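User: Please fill in residues for this 149-position structure.
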């Protein structure tokens, strides 16, 4: 085995190279020289390709960490209470309401009003919300999550 490459694969490759040069295109000395050269470079090429393929298909899956670590601005001022909004009727049947929320912009909380939006089949909307931790307040952005509504 060479760098994880199966020897039978290399033997098959060598056999194919030999067939290529046995049709009388080159004399015996040239065939021997070319077979050695191509055999060595082919083996190296196969070893490199096999190693790269193994690395790519190794099944390494990286998942994001749970929402414990927050990236972004740390806000030391608690968000104000949520506002009561009048929803009205949805503009189209099946639309869902996205609640308004307090956003942090230019060193102050700014209200972002709620709105109606089309649903995504197979997903549910997780609204924006503030999380209080040791260092202050962090905004967890609203997002679509796979699952029931």
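Assistant: Residues filled in for all 149 positions:
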């Amino acid at each position: 085995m060479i760098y994880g490459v199966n020897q039978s694969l290399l033997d098959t490759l060598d056999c194919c190279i030999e067939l290529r040069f046995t049709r009388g295109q080159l004399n015996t000395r040239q065939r021997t020289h070319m077979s050695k050269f191509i055999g060595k470079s082919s083996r190296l090429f196969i070893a490199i390709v096999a190693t790269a393929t193994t690395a790519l298909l190794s099944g390494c899956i990286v998942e994001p960490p749970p929402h414990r670590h927050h990236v972004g601005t740390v806000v030391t001022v608690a968000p104000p209470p949520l506002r009561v909004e009048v929803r009205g009727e949805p503009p189209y049947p099946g639309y869902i309401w996205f609640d308004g929320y307090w956003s942090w912009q230019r060193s102050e909380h700014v209200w972002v009003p709620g709105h109606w939006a089309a649903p995504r089949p197979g997903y549910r909307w997780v609204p924006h919300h503030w999380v209080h931790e040791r260092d202050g307040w962090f905004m967890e952005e609203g997002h679509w999550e796979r699952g029931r509504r």
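For context: The CA atoms of residues 125 and 144 lie 5 Å apart.
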